[in-house]
Amino acid sequence: MSDLSTAIVNALDLGAGFLEHDERPAAAAQAFYQTLGADRLDALVEALWVIIEHPSAQATEVLQAWHVMQVLKGCRRYLL
Fold this sequence. Notes:
α1 runs antiparallel to α4, α2 runs antiparallel to α3 and α3 runs antiparallel to α4. The model has no long low-confidence stretch (mean pLDDT 90). The chain has 80 residues and is mainly α. It is built from 4 helices and no strands.
C-alpha cells in the first residue's frame, strides 16, 4: 500500500506542475485522492495519458506519469 500512497502524492504533484499546460491531470488526481474509487482511477489514468502525449511535456514528466500510471493500475485491486 505504500506504493499506492506514493503514487497518489506523485500524481498530485505531477498534476499541479502541469497546470499551465492542462488542468485535467490535476483535477483527476485530486478527485482520485478524495474518493480512492476505481472509477476515479480510470479518469486519472486517462489524464496521465494527457501528460504523456502532450507536446510540451518534458521527458521527466512523461516518465513519472508512466510510472504512476503503472503503479496505480497494479494497485487497482485495493480500491473500492
